[in-house]
Design goal:
The complex is a heterodimer of chains A (about 120) and B (about 375). Chain A contains 1 helix and 8 strands. Chain A is mainly β and about 120 residues long. The longest helix of chain A is centred in the first third of the chain and has 9 residues. With about 375 residues, chain B is an alpha/beta fold. Chain B contains 13 helices and 11 strands. In chain B, a hairpin with a 4-residue loop joins strand 10 and strand 11. The radius of gyration of chain B is 19 Å and the shape is globular. Classes of the chains: A mainly beta (about 120), B alpha/beta (about 375).
Chain lengths: ~120, ~375
């Protein structure tokens, strides 16, 4: 159990994604009690934009044991409005590019993790 | 200062590795072990690799030192951070003699297990679970750099070629052999666009140094002709995705600004540098972050001969993490040891920088969420 993260990924999985927004418009990911960018304590949930843009990515050939059967796979950082996420890309390594448009969901048997789907 | 051989020593415990380096450091310094007032020890993954936490006291007793000892953990910057704390204690008059160093045992795990252990330097929930590895994170930074400024895998290969060439003759180095650009480009991919020769190896080893106050050195007639004149530390958000830019390391900028101001020097005063090249792209980001090159200019510095042994600013004359090896918790103080030898003239590459008086060490943790910079100056 990881309170905050579990609720966040469960919401992503059910197409109900959100992020935390401070009064100054900075985005962050839960659990947070204060905005990591400016220290504002007035955080509220805001809907995660449906469409994000891949800023950079890598194709991992040497994975950790958790992903032993999946390499090579692509992992990316994508920007969704005022918040960015890291996620595996649900596409072949050759089909990933910077600037590509993705949506965010979550997958996993026991623990959910962030996955980007090409739009 | 003292170093073990950096390489594959899977059966050796970190306490034994540190004993070798620490005793060598005490002998090199000519300091009586009973004068040591504290041990500042860097170690990253001992809990995972050796099922051993709380390594500080083990480190002290391994040296036969009866003094308080603390383990510092800041991922790959563990002993850089330990060094900074020790420097501050000596400066503040809290202590006259301290041992600083670090040790890491890694090759007793297999590559996947080590990859997992190293990955905990990133955000476990939001990066590692999303498939991010340590090489993967630097690969993401490399791609972002290429897209923002240009540069190529060939440029990065030149950095690996340079650092391998520098390690030839370094008895402590893991790889004491030259490679070619073709070797690097033809090597298997680890995390695109980074291949095996863009990455430092997995390494066992230890480093240590004895820090003394000027008063103690004078009183005991020690030959302490290299001084640490500047120290700085910078920090950043843990996860890459929480940073403003993927191709910059502002923690290194903050650490360098602080250390250079502390020492009263500018980048133009620096004769030689040891920087944290855990991946080839990391050397570029370090040099640009510290202000030695404008953003986008550092990637070709090795190819153009600026940072090679005969260039204007030789970088990683030890071989760097790439060829010397990277026993994570030992790396920061190993840079201090290499620079000390370069400045006092008993380094295998001393002839390349015969007149060097100022050296800079840059040590980074994770994807540079932690960074330390230290300035060393030859005295008199």
């Amino acid at each position: 159990m990881n309170q905050g993260y579990d609720e966040f990924t469960a919401a992503l999985e059910s197409d109900d994604g959100y992020y935390l927004e401070c009064a100054n418009g900075h985005g962050s990911l839960p659990p947070r009690r204060v905005c990591p960018h400016c220290g504002d304590r007035d955080l509220s949930e805001a809907p995660l934009p449906e469409e994000g843009e891949v800023l950079s990515y890598t194709v991992v050939h040497v994975p950790t044991p958790a992903f032993a059967g999946e390499a090579p796979y692509a992992t990316a950082v994508a920007e969704f409005g005022s918040v960015r996420l890291t996620g595996r890309v649900a596409a072949g390594p050759d089909d990933v590019s910077t600037g590509m448009e993705v949506s965010a969901t979550a997958e996993g048997d026991d623990d959910l993790s962030v996955v980007f789907e090409p739009r | 200062m003292g170093l073990t051989h950096f390489g594959s020593h899977p059966a050796r415990t970190s306490r034994d590795l540190f004993a070798e380096a620490g005793l060598a450091a005490l002998d090199d310094a000519g300091v009586d072990p009973t004068d040591v007032e504290g041990v500042f020890y860097g170690n990253f993954m001992g809990d995972i690799a050796e099922h051993q936490g709380h390594q500080g006291p083990l480190a002290a007793e391994a040296l036969g030192v009866d003094a308080p000892a603390t383990r510092y953990e800041s991922a790959c910057a563990s002993s850089g951070v330990a060094l900074r704390q020790a420097v501050r204690d000596v400066r503040n008059g809290e202590a006259d003699v301290l041992v600083v160093g670090g040790a890491e045992r890694m090759t007793n795990l297999d590559t996947e297990e080590t990859t997992e252990a190293l990955a905990i330097a990133a955000d476990d929930l939001y990066e590692v679970r999303a498939g991010m590895t340590f090489p993967g994170a630097y690969a993401l930074m490399a791609r972002a750099y290429f897209e923002e400024y240009g540069g190529s895998r060939e440029d990065l290969a030149e950095i690996a070629v340079k650092n391998h060439a520098n390690a030839v003759g370094n008895d402590h180095a893991q790889f004491q052999r030259e490679i070619t650009v073709e070797d690097a480009l033809d090597a298997p991919m680890v995390a695109e666009p980074l291949g095996l020769y863009d990455a430092c190896p997995i390494t066992d080893g230890a480093s240590a140094a004895v820090l003394v106050s000027p008063e103690y050195a004078e009183e005991h007639d020690l030959d302490a002709d290299v001084a640490i004149t500047g120290t700085g530390q910078g920090g950043d958000k843990m996860a890459l995705h929480d940073r403003d830019a993927l191709a910059h390391t502002p923690a290194a900028t903050d650490a360098a600004d602080e250390a250079f101001a502390d020492a009263g020097i500018g980048t133009g005063d620096v004769d030689v540098a040891e920087v944290h090249d855990c991946f080839t792209i990391a050397e570029v980001l370090a040099l640009e972050g510290m202000g030695f090159f404008d953003e986008g200019e550092g990637v070709t510095a090795a190819a153009e001969g600026v940072t090679t042994a005969d260039g204007d600013l030789p970088v990683n004359l030890s071989g760097g993490l790439k060829a010397k090896g990277h026993p994570v918790g030992a790396t920061g103080v190993s840079q201090l040891a290499e620079l000390t030898k370069l400045l006092r003239g008993d380094h295998h590459n001393s002839d390349r920088v015969a007149d060097a008086r100022v050296g800079v060490a840059h040590n980074a943790g994770g994807t540079v969420a932690s960074a330390t910079v230290h300035v060393l100056e030859k005295q008199a």
